[in-house]
Each structure stands twice: as C-alpha cells, then as structure tokens.
C-alpha cells in the first residue's frame, strides 16, 4: 500500500503539505513539522518560547489524532528552536517533556537560525507507530 497522506481539521489548511503520513496500516505515521500556528496561519505565542511550544504540541496532537495516533504512539521526535541560547531550548524542552508525561521517545533538540513562518520559534517533527487494527487494545 502506498503512503496515505492525512490532512487535519482544526489546523491551518493552506500549509501546502500533509500534516501526517501513514506508511501502511499498523505501521508508521510521519508527522510534518508541527508549527505554532492557528487555523488562519498566524503564529501563536509571540516571542514566548514556552507559549509557542504549547501551541506546537497541541497542533502535533491534532495531526497525530487525524492519523489515528497520539503522543503515546510517538517513537521519535526532532525539536527545532530558533535560538543559540540553551535556556531557550530548555524552555521548549520543559513544555514538550511535560506534555509527553512518562512517555519519553528518543528525541533530538537543536537550535537553528530560522524556521518557515515569520516569528516562528519552534517546530516539532514526530514519527509514531499505530498498531494494526487486530493488535489494538
């Protein structure tokens, strides 16, 4: 079965990419980089790293749900933060780590110089595993 690309109601619809992809039933979900934007494409949170991280995780949750997954199904994340300051990276990590609770998938946290939307400070990519229907439960 070819990959199935998934849109997500409640997220910005003019992004130009799918919010998630399912490799095969009972297989992997590849989520596009979740951004701190609302349904109109506006960046949420201003210059507040934690506020942007909260919106980014909320958008990731929405995209994963559209593909039949949740944060507990995530097997890998990559977290991008526009900053060379480790304290800013730490502020984002604190939000992400709290939202994932006891589920601690392998993660990469890195500072970058720029992201796709004006004012965007945070982006999170995720890979999740969704059990096959006969394995769910």
What's the story with the biggest beta sheet?
A: 6 strands, mixed
Computed structural class: alpha+beta
CATH architecture: 2-Layer Sandwich
Helix content: 10-25%
CATH-defined topology: 60s Ribosomal Protein L30, Chain: A
Roughly how many Å apart are the termini?
24 Å
Taken as a percent bin, the fraction of beta residues is: 25-35%
Principal-axes geometry comes out as globular
Number of helices: 2
CATH superfamily: RutC-like
Average pLDDT, all residues: 88
In terms of topology, how is this protein built?
Layout: E1 4-6, E2 20-22, E3 28-34, H1 49-66, E4 74-82, H2 86-100, E5 107-112, E6 122-129
Parallel strand pairs: 4-5
Antiparallel strand pairs: 1-2, 2-3, 3-6, 4-6
Helix pairs in contact: 1-2
Q: What would your notes on this structure say?
A:
This protein has 137 residues and is α+β, with helices and mostly antiparallel strands. It has one domain: RutC-like (60s Ribosomal Protein L30, Chain: A), CATH 3.30.1330. The protein has a six-stranded mixed β-sheet. Strand 4, helix 2 and strand 5 form a beta-alpha-beta unit. It is globular.
TL;DR of this structure?
This protein has helices at 49-66, 86-100, and strands at residues 4-6, 20-22, 28-34, 74-82, 107-112, 122-129. It is of the alpha+beta class.
Q: What key attributes describe this structure?
A:
137 residues; 60s Ribosomal Protein L30, Chain: A; alpha+beta; globular; six-stranded mixed beta sheet; 6 strands
